[in-house]
């Protein structure tokens, strides 16, 4: 699954630079995650890096984006291919 940021976000800025896929960005009110880019850090790290650093634990899985590990790995590979161009 991709992860999402809830409205408990305090805009502390620490998660955005930790994302290896540049999936996190500052939206109109709070930080947001682009589900097309979030692999739950599969391909890069064992644990989601944003969840590790978030001080208010406001980054749950996105129930709209149920994806298994294989799908996340395919997303990772696609993102790597896109980045190479
Ligand atoms: S889980 Fe990983 S890839 Fe997804 S938003 Fe967090 S840091 Fe980025
Ligand atoms: S680390 Fe958590 S509180 Fe800080 S900006 Fe990211 S989602 Fe928001």
Q: Can you put this structure into words, describing what you see?
A:
The chain is α+β, with helices and mostly antiparallel strands. The chain has one domain: Alpha-Beta Plaits (2-Layer Sandwich), CATH 3.30.70.20. The protein is built from 2 helices and 2 strands, in the order ββαα. Strands 1-2 form a two-stranded antiparallel sheet. The termini are far apart. The model has no long low-confidence stretch (mean pLDDT 96). It binds iron/sulfur cluster (2 copies). The site of one iron/sulfur cluster has 14 residues, from loops. It comes from Curvibacter cyanobacteriorum. This is YfhL family 4Fe-4S dicluster ferredoxin. Keywords: 4Fe-4S, Iron, Iron-sulfur, Metal-binding. Pfam families: Fer4_7 (PF12838).
Task: Give the arrangement of secondary structure elements.
Blueprint: E1 24-26, E2 31-33, H1 49-53, H2 69-83
Bound molecules: iron/sulfur cluster (SF4) (2 copies).
Residues 5, 9-15, 31, 53-54, 56, 58-59 line the site of one iron/sulfur cluster (SF4).
Structural class: alpha+beta
The CATH class, by name, is Alpha Beta
- Bound molecule types: iron/sulfur cluster
Largest sheet: 2 strands, antiparallel
How far is the N terminus from the C terminus? 26 Å
Rg over CA atoms: 12 Å
User: How many strand units?
Assistant: 2
Integer tally of domains: 1
CATH architecture group name: 2-Layer Sandwich
Q: Please report which band the strand proportion falls in: under 5%, 5-15%, 15-25%, 25-35%, 35-45% or over 45%.
A: 5-15%
Count of discrete alpha- or pi-helical segments spanning 4 or more residues = 2
CATH topology annotation: Alpha-Beta Plaits
Compressed to H and E, one letter per element, the order equals EEHH
Low-confidence spans: pLDDT under 50, at least 5 residues?
none
User: What's the arrangement of strands in the largest beta sheet?
Assistant: 1-2
How helical, in percent, are the residues? 10-25%
Categorize the overall geometry. Answer: globular
Organism: Curvibacter cyanobacteriorum
Domain 4Fe-4S ferredoxin-type: 1-29, 31-64
InterPro entries: 4Fe4S_Fe-S-bd, 4Fe4S_Fe_S_CS, PSI_iron-sulfur_center, YfhL-like
Pfam families: Fer4_7 (PF12838)
């Amino acid at each position: 699954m991709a992860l999402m940021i809830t409205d408990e976000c305090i805009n502390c800025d620490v998660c955005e630079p930790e994302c290896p896929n540049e999936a996190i960005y500052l939206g109109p009110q709070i930080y947001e995650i682009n589900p097309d880019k979030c692999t739950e850090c599969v391909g890069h790290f064992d644990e989601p890096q944003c969840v590790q650093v978030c001080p208010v634990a406001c980054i749950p899985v996105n129930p709209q984006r149920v994806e298994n590990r294989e799908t996340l790995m395919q997303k990772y590979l696609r993102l790597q291919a896109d980045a190479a161009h």
